[in-house]
Every structure is written in C-alpha cells, then in structure tokens.
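Notes to self, UPF0102 protein FZO89_17245:
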Amino acid sequence: MRARGAGVEAAACAYLVGAGLRPVAANATARFGELDLVMRDGDTLVFVEVRYRRSTRFGGGAGSVDARKRRKLVLAARQFLAAHREHRDAPCRFDVVDASGDPDAPSFDWLRDAFRADDG
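result:
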C-alpha cells in the first residue's frame, strides 16, 4: 500500500513538474502530519496533497480532504515554514491532486488553490 502511494506521489510530482512547478520537498514530516509535496509555482510555495482512488465510484480523492485533514495540513505547513525560514515570506497555497485509475499510470485532476488556510 505504501509503495503504491509513493509511486502515485512520484507520478503526481512529475505531472506537476511538467506543468512548470519546481519540487522543494516530498513527504515532509511534521508533528501534525505529513506534506506529500512542497513545490514552487513561480514565487508561490505550494503545499500539495495527493489523494489516490482506484475508482471514483464512491467519490474522488479530493472529497476526502475534509475540514480535519485541511487543519492538519495547515498546521504541518506552518511547521514547515517555521523550519525552512527561507520560504517564510513566500505567498502560499494549498493544492490537491486527485489521482485515479491504474496506480502505475494514474490520471490526475489538479485542483489549484483547493482550500485556504483560514477555511478551517
């Protein structure tokens, strides 16, 4: 299961790099959780949550990023910024990459600015 998730995250990273983002960190752990990908989109620091579902029959992965998960991601992002002061003044956003289908060749739905830090 973890290997499949790592493969999907690597594929999502490659997809985002192809769209012009630059990788900063992957699987950045924090006290409050893990940030799947941290990337740069121009001057903006982007915290990316990658969600994989083999089938969207019961809803896509983006729908599983509920209020509790968003709060954990915001706390982890704040911790990341505190630990990496070179990024502290960068504008930030939270994206979700909804991956589905074959885990070896997933399709992606990239939701830019999927939620805000103050969405709670």
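- The domain at 2-119 is CATH 3.40.1350.10 (Trna Endonuclease; Chain: A, domain 1).
- The beta strands are 22-30, 33-41, 44-53, 92-100, 107-115.
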